[in-house]
Specification:
globular; alpha/beta; binds guanosine-5'-monophosphate; five-stranded parallel sheet
């Protein structure tokens, strides 16, 4: 019998390193993949359409909402972000561990609509470290960084709704912890 796949929600305040954590996990596991989200925000330097995101207009995004094409979507920092449902479900059905790397409101929608999904909140060690990481990234204006920090405080307050909370202090340790969660959750599903 084919191994069952699963959906993993990985949520964290912006700048907490969730993409890096995912990259490291995909180096040690060949059964993980990432859902590519659609967004209306502008691409940053080096970001590619269809790889980092599908960069689309608000009009197209709203058309996809109308057609019920999103598993979830949310408005974050004045832009839309959403998970195309079809591709994510196809990955899970083919036995993959499909990561949704999304913000808190969208994460909560997936928890409600897909109760089988495993939810993980990646916690920054503290707010000072988060601020330093956002500034070092050099991709947002001071105003946007402040806004992202405000959203982060809110997100941290509701971290208890997630199945697991992992602190991203040392990358290797956080990756190890998440891999242990994946192993245990897969065992439950394939028992
Ligand atoms: P960024 O602009 O830094 O790429 O992303 C901003 C936030 O939106 C991050 O927390 C990121 O995880 C989240 N995000 C990315 N894609 C999605 C999505 O499809 N749905 C939701 N709800 N959030 C997303």
């Amino acid at each position: 019998m084919r191994k069952k796949g699963m959906m993993v929600i990985l949520s964290a305040p912006s700048g907490c390193g969730k993409d890096t954590v995912f990259r490291e996990i995909s180096k040690i596991r060949d059964d993980v993949c990432e859902s590519v989200s659609a967004t209306t925000r502008q691409p940053r330097d080096g970001e590619k359409n269809g790889v980092n995101y599908f960069f689309i207009t608000a009009e197209k995004f709203e058309d996809m909402i109308e057609k019920n094409e999103f598993l979830e979507y949310a408005c974050y920092n004045r832009c839309y972000y959403g998970t195309p449902a079809k591709a994510a479900m196809e990955m899970v059905n083919s036995g993959k561990i499909c990561f949704l790397i999304i913000e808190r409101k969208g994460a909560q929608k997936v928890m409600k609509n897909c109760p089988d999904a495993v939810s993980i909140f990646l916690m920054p060690p503290d707010m000072e470290t988060l601020e330093k990481r956002l500034k070092k990234r050099n991709t947002d204006s001071d105003e946007q960084i402040l806004n992202r920090l405000k959203i982060a405080e809110d997100e941290i307050k509701s971290s208890s709704v997630f199945d697991y909370v992992v602190v991203n202090n040392e990358l290797e340790k956080a990756v190890d912890e998440i891999n242990t969660i994946l192993i245990e959750e897969l065992e439950k599903r394939n028992a």
